[in-house]
Design goal:
globular, mainly beta, binds CU-O-CU linkage, binds copper (II) ion, eight-stranded mixed sheet, 39% strand
Length: 494
Amino acid sequence: MNRRSFLRTSAAGALAAGTGGGLLYGLGLAETSPRPLPLIPLRDLSAGLDGRVPLRLGPGVHDFGTGAASATYGIGSPYLGPVLRVRNGQTLPADVFNGLEETVALHWHGLHIPGAVDGGPHQEIEPGATWSPDVPIAQRASMNWFHSHTHGTTARQTYSGLAGVLLVEDDDSLAAYLPKTYGVDDFTLVLQDKAFDDDGRMTYELTGQVFEDGFEADVMVVNGAIAPVAQAVPKGLIRLRVLNACNARFLRLSLDAGPLTVIASDGGFLGEAVETNVVVMSPGERYELLVDMRERDREALLVSFGDGADPLELIGDALGLGTEVLELRRTASRGFDGAPPRALASLPPPDRTQATVTREFVLNMGQQEDLAALAAAWGNFCGEGGMGINGRPMKMDRIDAEVRLGDTEIWRISSEDMLHPFHVHGCSFRILSQNGGSPPAYASGWKDMVHVEEGWSEILVKFDHPAPARTPYMFHCHILEHEDCGMMGQFTVG
Ligand code: C2O
Ligand code: CU
Ligand code: CU
């Protein structure tokens, strides 16, 4: 049996068990009633700034809901960072202080910013030091995030909690007839999978198998609380801004009763709202959803997942499949009472004739390497080994591609084995094809992530910001253990 069919079989087994991944916590928690949805603290800078914005990275202690204190990392909080809200045209003057006992880098995922402030692995922050980039916000309204991008330890550090959300607003999004009251009808959801030991403490261990599959655990966590969580909402439309911050899991999202309305993807609003039963999110992807609570007392967001294989293929697009992660309970109060909008933004179809350069990237698993031996030898560090792109593992001192500033290019990406989420820094792109077919309607707007399997995935991408060889942009698999293990490359724009 080859690797892929093995994965299919084991994922199908998990589904047969009835839960799409089996959320059996092993801690006697599966029976408990939902805990409240934690609201991530909002730092709203969109109306103006007074001074620099501190982001303090440090160790924390956090109870995910097991009753035990887990050792975590956080950004101004014991676990995870804030939701920062900024406006197109602003400059975000961040002071990123490293209060950890190890080196970090902090990357702004999704921002269209020069390499010099991108926060890739060349921009290391030593313990006790502060990195102070002035981050120019120059893009449409969109949900972005920031997370560890430290060379070789991105996976463990991000899992530990070095991740936060960055919402960009613009004139259109602020004027749009949509729910936008944070914590009332507008919620940010950070979805992650976590493993816990018998005492209920969060665990992370790199083994050869974890390098290969990426780290996958069976307990879903929403904003740092073990699912299911519940939230009271007013009668009206509810907006959910969802980030898949898992290290490696693809998540299949659906609702218990009705279809999802998708209004935005990684890079901002879709041309028009897309109604769909299912959204499949890779690690690193963001989608904004509307849930219609005008006629319903209750609705639930469901998540299911396979093991490395394509969950859509396995499960189909029926409603009501999966495990409840968030329950919305309607109260008597009146909320946003509009109908879901149809037209959202102007989104001309991608025009491939604009491209002047075509490049090809093949993601390699490097199975000839003994990943178990690497894991044992390196402890929780992988770095420049094992996996690669176009046969070459990531090297900090090698530039893999040089792009001319202002050029539009077609990048064709495929994979030798397994499904991978491919990400490019410094831009948003359009997906021309995904694994040899058309992308789903909800993924046909602005994106910075594309799913890659054996068939070619093609993106149309324009590079508008410079990245010199000192601080190049990265392109990589967003299964963080694959990234750490070498499935990453570097490019300059100039
Ligand atoms: Cu979200 Cu290079 O990363
Ligand atoms: Cu990025
Ligand atoms: Cu990968």
